[in-house]
């Protein structure tokens, strides 16, 4: 009876959190102790709540709540509940919550049989161990020398690779050296926000990154549209300019003319005007940036033509 009451209370709490919060962080809780978890709760108090529990209970409560409320978006959480995971409900900035959680990590030794979450490299150092331990280092292919009666590691050595199990020799060595290479804490595995699920890597994207990605995509669309002659909004300026170049070429090769072509023909008739226009550039470069801005505001700018390509594009100014 007591178990049933606890399950009902847990279900009620989970449903309340789902209705109250629209941002949820799914976190991996491997090797996280109760004291460490309590510290994380204290750090998040005021804007976030942590809920741990059995995956089957969480999946069942979420499924029933989605059916009862008609909000099928909650069902997107169910596939994420795999392994030793918990939920952090928050109303604050998701990135800030992740950064707060990342602060509460504790060091841990390399235990035998543990899968290494990171690469472990022993640095070059004086171990303070007596020469009787030399054979131990030789068994691990670690170059050493005797310095002032102690064993000194000559060069850094990569002894454990990420994803591999820690062996007994490696664990013993790291213990002798007093190295605790691993740290454990809650790790954000996925982020749920208003029905959408995305990787926590998205939180590290800046406005500059988004603009760069957008510009790259726009460039690809423009290149594809030009190659297949398919008009799109991205390629419209390029198609207009290319069309203008073709019309201008026809006007220059024949007696046909139009207003924008007259200026080009005038320069071609009197090439000395190119030199006059080019002479303006060195003189302008002598002035300072501030003086140049003032001068531009005070009087109209003169056209600067240096080549045929620059001339064609400049006609739109």
UniProtKB/TrEMBL annotation:
<dbReference type="GO" id="GO:0022625">
    <property type="term" value="C:cytosolic large ribosomal subunit"/>
</dbReference>
<comment type="subunit">
    <text>P0 forms a pentameric complex by interaction with dimers of P1 and P2.</text>
</comment>
<dbReference type="GO" id="GO:0000027">
    <property type="term" value="P:ribosomal large subunit assembly"/>
</dbReference>
<dbReference type="GO" id="GO:0003735">
    <property type="term" value="F:structural constituent of ribosome"/>
</dbReference>
<dbReference type="InterPro" id="IPR043141">
    <property type="entry name" value="Ribosomal_uL10-like_sf"/>
</dbReference>
<dbReference type="Pfam" id="PF00428">
    <property type="entry name" value="Ribosomal_60s"/>
</dbReference>
<dbReference type="InterPro" id="IPR043164">
    <property type="entry name" value="Ribosomal_uL10-like_insert_sf"/>
</dbReference>
<dbReference type="InterPro" id="IPR040637">
    <property type="entry name" value="Ribosomal_uL10-like_insert"/>
</dbReference>
<dbReference type="InterPro" id="IPR030670">
    <property type="entry name" value="uL10_eukaryotes"/>
</dbReference>
<dbReference type="GO" id="GO:0070180">
    <property type="term" value="F:large ribosomal subunit rRNA binding"/>
</dbReference>
<comment type="function">
    <text>Ribosomal protein P0 is the functional equivalent of E.coli protein L10.</text>
</comment>
<dbReference type="Pfam" id="PF17777">
    <property type="entry name" value="RL10P_insert"/>
</dbReference>
<dbReference type="GO" id="GO:0002181">
    <property type="term" value="P:cytoplasmic translation"/>
</dbReference>
<dbReference type="InterPro" id="IPR050323">
    <property type="entry name" value="Ribosomal_protein_uL10"/>
</dbReference>
<feature type="domain" description="Large ribosomal subunit protein uL10-like insertion">
    <location>
        <begin position="110"/>
        <end position="179"/>
    </location>
</feature>
<dbReference type="InterPro" id="IPR001790">
    <property type="entry name" value="Ribosomal_uL10"/>
</dbReference>
<keyword id="KW-0687">Ribonucleoprotein</keyword>
<keyword id="KW-0689">Ribosomal protein</keyword>
<dbReference type="Pfam" id="PF00466">
    <property type="entry name" value="Ribosomal_L10"/>
</dbReference>
<protein>
    <recommendedName>
        <fullName>60S acidic ribosomal protein P0</fullName>
    </recommendedName>
</protein>
<comment type="similarity">
    <text>Belongs to the universal ribosomal protein uL10 family.</text>
</comment>
């Amino acid at each position: 009876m007591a178990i049933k009451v606890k399950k009902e209370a847990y279900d009620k709490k989970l449903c309340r959190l789902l209705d109250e919060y629209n941002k949820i962080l799914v976190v991996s809780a491997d090797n996280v102790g109760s004291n460490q978890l309590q510290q994380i709760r204290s750090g998040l108090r005021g804007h976030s709540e942590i809920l741990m529990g059995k995956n089957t209970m969480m999946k069942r409560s979420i499924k029933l709540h989605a059916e009862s409320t008609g909000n099928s978006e909650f069902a997107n959480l169910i596939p994420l509940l795999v392994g030793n995971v918990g939920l952090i409900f928050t109303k604050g900035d998701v990135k800030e919550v992740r950064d707060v959680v990342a602060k509460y990590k504790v060091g841990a030794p390399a235990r035998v049989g543990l899968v290494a979450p990171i690469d472990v490299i022993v640095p070059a150092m004086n171990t303070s161990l007596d020469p009787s331990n030399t054979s131990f280092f030789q068994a691990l292919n670690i170059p050493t020398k005797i310095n002032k009666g102690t064993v000194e590691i000559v060069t850094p050595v990569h002894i454990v690779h990420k994803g591999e199990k820690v062996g007994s020799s490696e664990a013993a060595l790291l213990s002798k050296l007093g190295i605790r290479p691993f740290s454990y804490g809650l790790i954000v595995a996925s982020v749920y926000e208003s029905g959408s699920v995305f990787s926590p890597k998205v939180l590290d994207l800046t406005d500059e990154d988004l603009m760069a990605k957008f510009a790259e995509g726009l460039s690809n669309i423009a290149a594809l549209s030009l190659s297949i002659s398919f008009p799109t909004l991205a390629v419209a300026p390029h198609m207009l300019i290319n069309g203008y170049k073709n019309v201008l070429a026809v006007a220059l090769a024949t007696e046909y003319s139009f207003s924008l072509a007259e200026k080009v023909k005038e320069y071609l008739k009197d090439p000395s005007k190119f030199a006059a226009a080019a002479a303006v550039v060195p003189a302008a470069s002598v002035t300072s940036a501030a003086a140049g801005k003032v001068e531009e505001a005070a009087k109209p700018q003169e056209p600067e033509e240096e080549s045929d390509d620059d001339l064609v594009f400049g006609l739109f100014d």
